[in-house]
UniProtKB/TrEMBL annotation:
UniProt cross-references to InterPro entries, sorted A to Z: AB_hydrolase_1, AB_hydrolase_fold, Epox_hydrolase-like
GO terms assigned for molecular function: epoxide hydrolase activity
Domain AB hydrolase-1: 98-344
Key words of the record: Hydrolase, Membrane, Transmembrane, Transmembrane helix
Gene that specifies this protein: EPHX4
Keyword Membrane: yes
Sequence intervals crossing the membrane: 28-49
Name assigned to this protein: Epoxide hydrolase 4
Protein family (similarity comment): Belongs to the AB hydrolase superfamily. Epoxide hydrolase family.
Source species of the chain: Sparus aurata
Amino acid sequence: MARVLHNLLLFLIRLALKIRVLGYWSLIYGYCALCTVVALLKLCWNIVLRPTATFQWSIRETPPACLNDTSLGTHCYVRIKESGLRFHYVAAGERGKPLMLFLHGFPEFWFSWRYQLREFKSEFRVVAIDMRGYGESDLPLSPESYRFDYLVTDIKDIVEYLGYNRCCLVGHDWGGTIAWLFAIHYPEMVTKLIVLNCPHPSVFTDYALRHPSQLLKSSHFFFFQLPRFPELMLSINDFKALKALFTSRSTGIGRKGRWLTAEDLEAYLYALSQPGALTGALNYYRNVFSSLPLSHNHVRSPVLLLWGERDAFLEQEMAEACRIYIRNHFRLNIISGASHWLQQDQPDIVNTLIWTFLKEGEGRKSYRN
């Protein structure tokens, strides 16, 4: 009798797990279908309003002058032997000083860290990379090439190529996700972790599934699962959607901080208008659902989490919830009036908070190899 009950219990557990998995993927594909319908309606409306302009966009041939500003650093390249990919990065500060490595988000590139490159080069070897699929780094077109383990290994290889065995790691948005994962899997290589407007991946998964409001704000995750169509929607009307992302009142940079200049916006359009650039950026999303939930969660490095109060894409409640996964000092700063694009929106406040965090505990000397 006991054996029968035991087998029945195992069967029910397996059945519940299968139902949960089925429900998870049904939610994803159902929401994908809904987002597709909405996008198609928007496309049809654009065609009605602007029949000639809708399908016109131009590749920017010449980089704006701000991308060659020598005060930001030197443009460098590295080819990683294991992956065979070439990465572009901008570096400043003396070689041999502690390494501060910056990881950008979507749909950005190294330029999003321009204010921090200038600020921290006095005490650090600062390096802002174009992550795989972005900017002047190689752009694998297969979504499979953007698995979490590949993205994390990229960072490990780059740190070692630069001649370091540890770094102060700074990430925003998708760069924040990779920074969290890198700190989880290579704790000995992260002296301090600084994340901007990106929750711990497990917090995001748990919270989004329980809060429809966050699921709605994350609708782009589902829409971006589609092949080719998201690239088209981001390109029509000469990249109008991308321009709005950075400049609109609801989602853009500078609602209470610094405004994105016309030249800054051109820098983004130059990077994202290149052939294959949007596909590379979107492929980060096309692997996310098969990579979650995580099997390992805990972060053992000291963590600073900076959060823009008016983030249009991520709810603030997730920020405090990150504490449960951190096995070290955790500091959370909510910046009033700041947007999702925190390091560009409020660079002075962000830089001051980072300096304060860096001076805590062991002090700056702890960053040296």
